[in-house]
Design brief:
Elements: H1 2-9, H2 14-41, H3 56-70, E1 74-79, H4 90-107, E2 115-123, E3 126-133, H5 163-173, E4 177-183, E5 187-195
Parallel strand pairs: 1-2
Antiparallel strand pairs: 2-3, 3-5, 4-5
Helix pairs in contact: 1-2, 2-5, 3-4, 4-5
Length: 197
């Protein structure tokens, strides 16, 4: 990636720059795949995790929402004022949110009025985080497979099938859980629960 960026910065030829930029896009895609595989294969110790403060959630949720709004998606963020710290590092929480939001965004590709709702609230000693979309939903027959490594319904080159596997791994690694709630033609909700710190 560094070598390609180096050459791209030093060329004035428009055609060469275009080809180099296309190469960079593919390198970034490879980087994402490798990163997901490393996260999926990593054995991280819970004792080494840092606990993000409650103030961290609104900022991360707002940042995620801002990116979606650029794509014409209506974003509704609903968080309680007193969100607790949880047993999850800030980096892991960000990776989880990114994976869930990318899946929701992709599910809304053919929706004329796409909406994603992101909510977080404390409940019975846990923090419940949910990402809901108004897409086509997930068929019942594949709901048990969506967390399997490399399972994807996206066309070749569009998905690795690791996003939800990594998400489940990160959530379970800190003693949490993840569930899918889906009704065909009425959207999908991924509901996560994290133990409070």
């Amino acid at each position: 990636m560094n070598f390609v960026e180096y050459v791209s910065d030093r060329t004035d030829d428009a055609k060469s720059k275009e080809i180099l930029n296309q190469a960079l896009q593919q390198i970034h895609r490879i980087k994402k795949i490798v990163s997901n595989m490393l996260v999926f294969g990593a054995q991280q110790s819970r004792s080494n995790r840092q606990l993000p403060g409650a103030r961290g959630y609104p900022a991360k949720l707002a940042a995620a929402g801002g990116e979606l709004r650029k794509n014409g998606i209506q974003v509704e963020v609903d968080t309680a004022d007193d969100l607790p710290a949880i047993r999850c590092s800030a980096d892991s929480l960000q990776q989880i949110l990114i994976n869930l939001i990318i899946n929701a965004r992709d599910a809304l590709a053919d929706n004329r009025q796409p909406v994603i709702k992101i909510a977080a609230r404390p409940i019975e000693g846990m923090l419940e985080l949910s990402v809901t979309d108004n897409g086509p939903g997930i068929p019942q027959e594949i709901q048990t497979k969506i967390f399997d490594p490399f399972f994807t319904t996206k066309p070749p080159g569009k998905g690795t099938g690791l996003g939800l596997s990594v998400t489940r791994r990160l959530v379970q690694d800190v003693g949490g859980s993840i569930q899918v709630e889906s009704l065909l033609e009425h959207g999908c909700c991924l509901r996560l629960q994290f133990p409070q710190a």
